[in-house]
Amino acid sequence: MNIGPRGCRMRLVFGVASFAVAAGLGAAVVGLGAPRAARAAVALPLWIGALGVAQALAGT
After folding, report:
1. How many CB atoms lie within 10 A of CB 60?
2. Average pLDDT for consecutive 10-residue bins of the chain (60 residues)?
3. Could you tell me the CA-to-CA distances from 31 to 4, 23, 24 in Å, in that order?
4. b/e for 11-38, b at 16 or more Cβ within 10 A?
5. What number of H helices and E strands is found in the chain?
6. How buried is 40 (Cβ within 10 angstroms: 0-12 exposed, 13-18 middle, 19+ buried)?
7. How far apart are CA 21 and CA 37, in angstroms?
8. What is the pLDDT of residue 37?
9. Cβ proximity of 11 and 52 under 8 Å
10. In angstroms, rounded to a whole number, what is the distance separating the alpha carbons of residues 22 and 43?
């Protein structure tokens, strides 16, 4: 384990928050009928969320 319990918790909270942002952004761009290029903007918070949750669960 590279990080302590506090670091794990911070990464988990940040990851879940990033997933929430991605969900909201995804709903907005689909609901507004945005072009595909704009929908790609959802990938960044989704990736950050996945990374944060994975790091928290792995303890790295």
Report:
1. 12
2. 86 96 95 91 94 91
3. 40, 12, 10
4. beebbeebbebbeebbeebeeeeeeeee
5. 3, 0
6. exposed
7. 18
8. 86
9. yes
10. 8
In the block, tokens 């960044």 appear at: 44
Segments forming the whole domain that contains residue 44 = 5-58
One-letter identity of residue 42 = V
Q: Is 4 left (phi over 0), alpha (psi -120 to 50) or beta?
A: beta
- Token pair of 52 as six digits: 């944060």
Residue 59, C-beta contacts closer than 8 angstroms, at least 6 positions apart: 1, 2, 3, 8
Q: How many domains are contained in the chain?
A: 1
Report pLDDT for 1: 61
For residues 12 and 41, what is the distance between their CA atoms, to the nearest angstrom? Answer: 22
